[in-house]
Structures are given as structure tokens and as C-alpha cells.
Amino acid sequence: MKSLCVYCGSSVGASPAYADAARELAQLMVGQDIALVYGGGNVGLMGVIADEVMRLGGHVTGVIPQALMDKEVGHRGLPRLHIVKDMHERKALMAELSDGFVAMPGGIGTLEELFEVFTWAQLGFHEKPIGLLNAAGFYDGLIAFLDHVVAQRFLRREQASVLLHDASPPALLQKMKDFRPQYFEKIVDRATAAKII
């Protein structure tokens, strides 16, 4: 794993544990020579993790839509910043540049990004690891809800298991490195997927 896409909030959130987890993840990534790919912002947890990776001499690539750059939330200190036309292009480029995905605490934008790559994995569009960094139990409710979705037979257990989770950044990163794709029946094949995304 040479690059990791991190989805996270444009706020630092209510608990200092969230920013602490962002800095710890940044330190681990730099220590293991894993580049950061993220949404290109200078605010919230996005700014925290990007600043920490750069402070430690790591590699950072930001991807941000022009509309958000115009609102002055783009990080102008990044060595690599792709300015794209819209959110769809942003997410596609971030996925293309990354070998895996981590969702840190965040709002509906973070959840939307997470569930898109989770859905892509379910459909067989990619076989990259996906992790939830459950800092301070932030994602406890979501993990429980996904168990409920499985129990109600809207998601198979083996599909749900693709979404890795841990409260500890080192443990989550290790789970992602150990991840091996499971082969279960896909709705579409790779040739079809390549035309869709």
C-alpha cells in the first residue's frame, strides 16, 4: 500500500480524540512511506492530517472542486493540489490515486464518500481495503447499524466484512495491509465496471 485516501470532516468535531487520531494516522503513514490522498481542504480534520503529514516530510496530494477552492477552503500549502470541476470528478480521481480508503470521523460528506467506495467494492469495481477509524467510538452506531442491515438480509455478512474497523490507527492500518479480497458473486463484471466508474 503506497497511498491511502483519507475521508474526514471539515470540522475537528467535539472531541480532541478525533484530531489526535488524525495526527497518529499521519505519523504511521509517514513512518511506513504511505502517501496521503485527501479532499484538499485546509480546515477541520482534513487540515490536521494534511499538515501533520507535511510537517513530518510525507507526501500529500489534495483533490478539490473549483467551487470549494473559490470559497477559500483549499489548502494552498500542498505540494500537489488537483483542482477539478465537481465532486464526482474529485471522488473518481481520489479513488484512482489511492491503494486503500480510510474514513475518519466526519459528517454526511464523509459518509457519502465512504459508502460510495464501499458500494463499489460490493459491486466488484475495486478490491482495495476500506477502513473505519473508529476514534473514541465515533462509528459504534454505524457498525451496529450495518449489523442490523445484515440481520435484515439487505447485505450479506461477507460483503459487510469488507469494511474493516478499529479504534486504533496502528491496528486498523495493519488490518488493511493484511486484507485479501473475498470472492463472492458480483452483480457486474470488471468490464462493465470499467465503463461505469
From TrEMBL:
Where does the source fall among the domains of life? Bacteria
- Does Hydrolase count among this protein's keywords? yes
Q: Name one Pfam family in it.
A: Lysine_decarbox
This entry's Enzyme Commission designation comes to: 3.2.2.n1
Keyword annotations from UniProtKB, A to Z = Cytokinin biosynthesis, Hydrolase
Under which main EC class is this enzyme filed? hydrolase
Catalytic activities? AMP + H2O = D-ribose 5-phosphate + adenine
Q: PANTHER family from the entry?
A: LOG FAMILY PROTEIN YJL055W
**Protein family membership:** Belongs to the LOG family.
Q: What is this protein called?
A: Cytokinin riboside 5'-monophosphate phosphoribohydrolase
Q: What is the lineage of its organism?
A: Bacteria, Pseudomonadati, Pseudomonadota, Betaproteobacteria, Burkholderiales
